[in-house]
Design brief:
By secondary structure, this protein is of the alpha/beta class. The chain has 17 helices and 12 strands.
Length: about 525
């Protein structure tokens, strides 16, 4: 039998607009646009012109969409382009770098400086399937109130519709983190809750139809350390196949919730720098950078080599390697397909979008070549996640264990000795916010304060802050950002708790904060919906 191939790209960055530029701030999103999003647009346009299908399932988190659509982002990227060209003028002559940047600038201008509109165009033409996520990529299993989980998902779905014109069916649950129904007390300092709803209950409530999990959650493979080096080859020793979708629990009001399982074998081949394609010596070295200017001019050469031993980069050799690796990957998909068991339907391969182009410079070239290989040289059929589920509705029910796709397969990247303090700061603020919501909803004059408090809560809940602190890179910036949003929320809460306080001062402060942290323009409906549920 022949399996389908579902490539899913998850695109996300935390809210960085108006919070610095370099080394931490808006340069992050400009780098992602220059390294990944614009090259991806170029590849999609070339494939479209050639009549080659590339039905990628593309996830764009609501907080990333809010930034890509923001006028400030367009200005920041124009400035970033100008800076890169200045860098080229001051560097040794590197013709290929200038050609590359000129090409990206032409793409940027050809789409009217509107990445969201371009991705929407491909989706409306049926060439992409767009999916959503939680509003600010909150780590859902650790949020202290069920209202917070519902709010993240409701805002995520509504924002997707606002940007892309239709409600999403699929959800990228942040970090593929799942927790079933049951008792909850992740730290001794947390309020113990005898029974909390499982993440699936909130997904159903928000209207999502399917989501992704890592293989070990479905007992289809062992946990993989997707966020670092030294990964071990996964075993497919579990009782369930990763090559089929499952139904989670029983349908509610006739609506099933489906689970797609990450395939360890194929994703490790692409993801791992040491055992996968990105470690090929011909590719551009990510870590060696020329200063001043920040140009990358060296090849990987050898993954074990010191940076001083890196050799020169040859773009033609790297493009050739990307084509050869695409052919190899297509043959790997064929091999997996030939070994499929009865009932297997598709190879689901999810990745962070930014792997392609940013971390692995030639990654978008690889994807473009891969879809060419699949169109002309194999029996593997590429299709979107939604199309796969429509063609082969799951008929097997599954129960999931807790976990994530992070290091160790658990929650330890987000809660542990380095980050426990963040939760101990956030949970009491969550309690105060949701306890104040019913009264605040009855007072429309305070809605601007309520909405800005909700924004600060959402921004404080971003899983990025704990992740960055745990990895040690830019930890000071992540700490500062997290504390700032918590402090802003704490500043607004008193008037929501006691409307007799100085309302005008609170309204003025909320307006000031909204100038800096103003994603998601209309939150009152989602706040009301998230709070209007009787807990189990």
């Amino acid at each position: 039998m022949s399996l389908g191939f579902v490539l899913t790209l998850h695109s996300h960055l935390p809210w960085v607009l108006h919070h610095g530029r370099w080394p931490h701030g808006s340069d992050w999103i400009c780098e992602a646009a220059l390294d990944t999003y614009l090259p991806l647009v170029g590849a999609l346009r070339r494939l479209e012109a050639e009549g080659i299908a590339a039905p990628i399932t593309l996830g764009i988190t609501p907080i990333l969409a809010a930034q890509l659509a923001h006028p400030s982002f367009r200005e920041e990227l124009d400035t970033y382009f100008a800076h890169r060209f200045e860098t080229l003028a001051e560097a040794p002559e590197v013709p290929w770098w200038e050609q590359h940047l000129r090409g990206l600038q032409r793409i940027w201008e050809s789409i009217d400086r509107n990445l969201i509109g371009e991705f929407r165009r491909h989706a409306e033409a049926g060439r992409l399937e767009l999916i959503s996520s939680a509003a600010t990529h909150g780590f859902l299993p650790l949020l202290g109130r069920d209202e917070s989980i519902r709010f993240q998902l409701l805002v995520g779905r509504a924002e997707h519709q606002r940007h892309f014109g239709e409600l999403p069916h699929g959800c990228w649950v942040p970090e593929c983190a799942y927790r079933p129904r049951g008792p909850w007390q992740p730290l001794p300092s947390a309020r113990a809750v005898p029974v909390r709803r499982g993440i699936e209950d909130h997904l159903r409530f928000a209207g999502f139809r399917w989501f992704y999990v890592d293989a070990h959650l479905a007992e289809a493979g062992e946990a993989s350390e997707l966020y670092g080096g030294g990964t071990t080859k996964p075993r497919l020793g579990g009782p369930r196949s990763p090559y089929r979708a499952y139904q989670l629990g029983t349908p509610v009001r006739g609506r099933p919730l489906h689970v797609l399982v990450r395939d360890p074998r194929t994703t490790e081949q692409v993801w791992s720098r040491h055992g996968g394609y990105p470690g090929d010596g011909r590719y551009l070295e990510f870590h060696k950078i020329r200063y001043p200017g920040g140009l990358k001019l060296w090849s990987v050469t050898d993954t074990k080599a010191d940076l001083a031993e890196k050799g020169p980069y040859h773009p033609d050799q790297a493009r050739l390697a990307a084509g050869l690796h695409a052919r190899h990957f297509a043959s790997l998909l064929e091999a997996v397909s030939q070994a499929a068991r009865p009932g297997d339907r598709a190879i689901v391969a999810p990745f962070d979008t930014e792997l392609f182009g940013h971390w692995w410079f030639e990654g978008v070239d690889f994807l473009e070549a891969l879809f060419g290989e699949l169109a002309h040289g194999t029996r593997i059929r590429a299709l979107s996640a939604g199309a796969m589920l429509d063609e082969s509705p799951p008929n097997t029910t599954i129960r999931l264990g807790p976990g994530s796709w992070g290091a160790n397969g658990d929650f330890s990247m987000w809660i542990g000795p380095q980050t426990n303090w963040t939760w101990e700061m956030l949970w009491p603020l969550e309690e105060r916010f949701w306890d104040a919501v019913p009264q605040a909803l009855d007072d429309p004059g305070l809605w601007p304060v309520l909405e800005q408090a909700a924004r600060e809560l959402l921004l404080a809940q971003s899983s990025d802050w704990q992740f960055i602190i745990s990895t040690g890179a830019a930890g000071d910036y992540a700490t500062k950002r997290f504390v700032e949003h918590c402090d802003a929320l704490a500043e607004l809460l008193p008037v929501l708790e006691d409307p007799a306080r100085d309302r005008q001062a609170a309204l003025t402060r909320a307006a000031e904060l909204a100038q800096i942290d103003g994603p998601f323009p209309d939150l009152i409906g989602a706040i009301a919906a998230a709070s209007d549920v009787v807990d189990p």
